[in-house]
Amino acid sequence: MEKQIHIEPVTRIEGHGKITVFLDDKGDVRDARFHVTELRGFEQFCVGRTLWEMPGLTARICGICPVSHILASAKACDAILAVQIPSTAVLLRRLMNSAQLVQSHALSFFYLSAPDFLLGWDSDPAARNVVGLVAANPELARKGIRLRSFGQEIIDRLGGKRIHPGWAVPGGVNQALSSADRAWTLGRLPEALATIQETLSLFKGAFGDAEARRVLSDFPSMYMGLVRPDGAWEHYAGVLRIVDAKGKIVEPGYDPSRYYEIIQEAAEPWSYLKFPYYVPKGYPDGMYRVGPLGRLNACDHIASPLAQAELEEFRQRSGGRSGRVFDYHYARLIEILAALEEIGQLLADDRIGSSTIRAEAGVNAREGVGVHEAPRGTLIHHYWVDKDGVIEKINLIVSTGHNNLAMNRAITQIAKAHIKKGKATEGILNRIEGGIRAYDPCLSCSVHAVGRMPLAVEIVGPDGEVRETLRRD
Amino acid sequence: MEAMRVKIDGRSYDANPGKTILEVAEENGIKIPFLCHLKGLTDVGVCRVCIVDVRGQLVPACATVVTDGMEVLTSTDAVAAYRRSVVELLFAEGNHVCAFCVSNGGCELQDLACDVGMHSVRVPYAFPRNRVDASHPRFLVDRDRCVLCGRCVRACSEIEGAHTWDFAERGRAVRVITDLDVDWGKAATCTGCGKCVEVCPTGAIVRKGASNAEMRKKPEVVAGLVEGRSHG
Question: Do A95 and A200 have their domain in common?
Answer without folding.
Answer: yes
